[in-house]
Amino acid sequence: METLSVVILAVAGIVIAAMVWAFLSSSVGMQQTSADFTITSVEVRQMSTGQCRIFVNIRNNGGQSFDQLYIEVLGPSGTGWSGSETISLPPGRTISRIYTPGCQSGWVAGTPLLVRVTLTSTPTSVQVSKNVNTIIQYGA
């Protein structure tokens, strides 16, 4: 009888350990497959040279790396600028980018803009987009 009790307890312990392992591995798997980022800051400055400078800081707060960045800046009356580049942004890391396009027609200090950032994740080619409203500042 004691041997049967020991065998039953051993089997129950193995089953419980397997269930805990399955739960933990599925939780880690879900975290690793999420693709998300945060735009921590965006500034657009009108320079005295007539150019606009766009400063963007992005943090990867998901579980996948991003390898492609596409940025689009939309102004009044349909004016806009866009650019893309290959990047390396692993989970938990932050990147900063500066772009210097010519200021579009009507882009002066005080002009409201919409900045759209789209990142593409490495293994799954999932695209994640975020929008931020900003106002053009006057820079030196």
Summary keywords:
46% strand; 140 residues; Immunoglobulin-like; single chain; 8 strands; alpha+beta; four-stranded mixed beta sheet
Please characterize this protein's 3D structure.
This protein is of the alpha+beta class and 140 residues long. The chain folds into two domains: 33 residues; 102 residues, Immunoglobulin-like (Sandwich), CATH 2.60.40.10. It contains one helix and eight strands, in the order H-E-E-E-E-E-E-E-E. The protein has a four-stranded mixed sheet, with no helix packed on it. Strand 6 and strand 7 form a beta hairpin. It is rod-shaped, with a radius of gyration of 24 Å. The protein starts with a helix and ends with a strand.
Chart the SSEs and their pairings.
Layout lengths: L1 H32 L3 E10 L5 E9 L5 E9 L5 E10 L4 E6 L12 E10 L5 E9 L1 E2 L2
Parallel strand pairs: 1-8
Antiparallel strand pairs: 1-2, 2-5, 3-4, 3-6, 6-7
